[in-house]
Design goal:
mainly alpha, two-stranded antiparallel sheet, elongated, membrane, transmembrane, peptidase activity, EC 3.4.-.-, PrsW
Amino acid sequence: METIKFNCPFCQHSIELSASFGGKEVSCPNCSNNIQVPQAAPGSGKEKINPQQILYSGTRQAKNVFDDLRKIKFKEEVIPIDQSNIQMLLRDYAFWAVTLMGVVPLLIVTVNQLNAQLTLFALFFAFVWGVILKRFAINDDGGWILPISSLFFTGIVGIWLLLFIYRVFLPDFYINLSDSKHSFVSLIGLIFHVGIWEETMKAVPLLVVVLLFKSKIKPIHMITIGVFSGLGFAAFENLHYGQSAVNRAFSMANNYGAVGLESGVKNAMINVMLRAVSLVFCHAVWSGIVAYFVATAAIRKERVVALIILGIMVAAFLHGFYNWLQGHQQTMAALVAGFSFVLFYGYLIKLRSMGELYESQQQMLK
């Protein structure tokens, strides 16, 4: 016998009736609503759609959804913030790190002046690396005032003082060694001119802090101060190199037209990203290496000057050798940067063990 299978439009109960009921009204055995049995197309078995039933069913479902929405407590469901978790958020380091990383750049671009935006972005990347190194690599729970002061001192006063020394005190032949066409002479210049003087200047704020506060500064905090000094140097130096990259792009546009402009802009973008991310890191690591030797000298209280000079020489060699390889073999330069961090991390491990000796010495002095 031919049958008609369909669902009740009100409760979706499955119903099967004889084909003779097609087009007639029947009562649903489940919900008792009156429904019209669809006509079965010959040989198809498909239900006949009743627009009125669909409209009625849709209206009823919409009413149910609306009633459910009225019963929802939106304050609890949509805004999961109350007095207790506000306190948790204020102390949650990961929350603030991720928030600042995502929001601060959006705030920087609201500043009208382009030069101000560039300066703020340079400082932003320096502070990002500062937080990462202080929190995760150095694991220093000390304050922020001295590290941040070190950053701005080196970035503003230190770079100006270094340029003043270059102009007034250093002979031209010495300054030009790093630009020599002879590869070996260039390497010597990059180590004994660029490396030595930059690493010495980055060490100045740390040495001042050690002289002023002496035993009040923990050795591990000395590393943080040194690292932030390197970050400040890199941040403000990057502004100069960013402008140089723009000037090169302009020159290429004048010489080669649209093709030169495209190439120059892409090179400038790569240069800015490289310096904002990796070279800030490199400067921080190299100055951190010098800081390790300063901290070691503070703990041992012997061969102080020799240890500081040794630290500057190690950092200057890594710094100069990296710069030299950048112009010859960039893959090797990247490996030197990686080795620098491995060396720095090894120094940190060694310093933590020496720090126990330092703490015992301080207890004895008290």
